[in-house]
Amino acid sequence: xxxxxxxxxxxxxxxxxxxxxxxxxxxxxxxxxxxxxxxxxxxxxxxxxxxxxxxxxxxxxxxxxxxxxxxxxxxxxxxxxxxxxxxxxxxxxxxxxxxxxxxxxxxxxxxxxxxxxxxxxxxxxxxxxxxxxxxxxxxxxxxxxxxxxxxxxxxxxxxxxxxxxxxxxxxxxxxxxxxxxxxxxxxxxxxxxxxxxxxxxxxxxxxxxxxxxxxxxxxxxxxxxxxxxxxxxxxxxxxxxxxxxxxxxxxxxxxxxxxxxxxxxxxxxxxxxxxxxxxxxxxxxxxxxxxxxxxxxxxxxxxxxxxxxxxxxxxxxxxxxxxxxxxxxxxxxxxxxx
Length: 338
Known about the structure:
The termini are far apart. The chain has helices spanning 4-11, 15-23, 30-43, 49-56, 72-87, 101-113, 128-136, 160-173, 189-204, 221-231, 246-258, 292-307; strands at residues 61-66, 91-96, 118-121, 141-144, 154-158, 179-183, 214-216, 240-243, 268-272, 286-289, 317-320, 323-325. Strand 6, helix 9 and strand 7 form a beta-alpha-beta unit. The chain contains twelve helices and twelve strands. The longest helix has 16 residues, at 72-87. The model has no long low-confidence stretch (mean pLDDT 89). A six-stranded parallel sheet has the order 2-1-3-4-5-11, sandwiched between helices. The protein has a six-stranded mixed sheet with strand order 7-6-8-9-10-12, sandwiched between helices. The chain has three domains: 4-47, 434 Repressor (Amino-terminal Domain) (Orthogonal Bundle), CATH 1.10.260; 58-159 and 291-320, 3-Layer(aba) Sandwich (Rossmann fold); 160-289, Rossmann fold, CATH 3.40.50.2300. Helices cover 43% and strands 16% of the residues. Helix 1 (4-11) packs across helix 2. With 338 residues, the chain is of the alpha/beta class.
């Protein structure tokens, strides 16, 4: 494998000149640059960015740690992050934790060893240990999508509680009183916020909170399928299902199809997160749509400001609103046969 000395010899210049040309760290005449670039191409030379990063204390790499890269919500966030990072000259490393705390810790250890310049993190749980570890290493971090209780850090998220509140109010306005919530893990802030919004709407409507209508699982299709079956297994059945993310919604719809229940004729369904328009030919679901691309864009801009020394000493919590998109799935109440 060719090194910088081989390039210098072929180009007829000193190694330091090659370094200046490929790193844009000093003056190189057009003729010299042309010879160096030709030598680099002929030898297939790949600069050792890690070594130069160690000298400058920068690697020009950032990390985005997500909980489920297959979810369109997170892939849209990732696109927002990558677009802005690329314009700023940074490469983004994507990591997928599958909502696993242990997997998150392993990824963070690798990222810290690779000396990434900054980290965007969607915590698998409450995020306390992971955020504290990153801050201890003095690496800039912005938390995405979730809150981190009892720890000061920059956060960009959607107003999950208000979105859940508005969705539940919509169902109540359509006559629904038996509304089951199919929720994510109880230790995740988005699950707690959406449960709080659901309960707030019920309380305002004078409806007692009933634990039998509250289900906790994972933010997966399999969990949505299982929770929907449980919600409809009893003698008294809900007239509406509120799924707290898109994958739970898909799983619930599959369960309803299996039970030969029509939406919204037999049961109403609402959920969090919309699908990109390019993936849906006939939009059907009533949802609280989160501004995923905007969340990614705002988070990476805060991180870049921190890296450039432009950020203030105050931590930011950017809370973006969800948009309630009303479609066919949230029909008026029709009692199931008990």
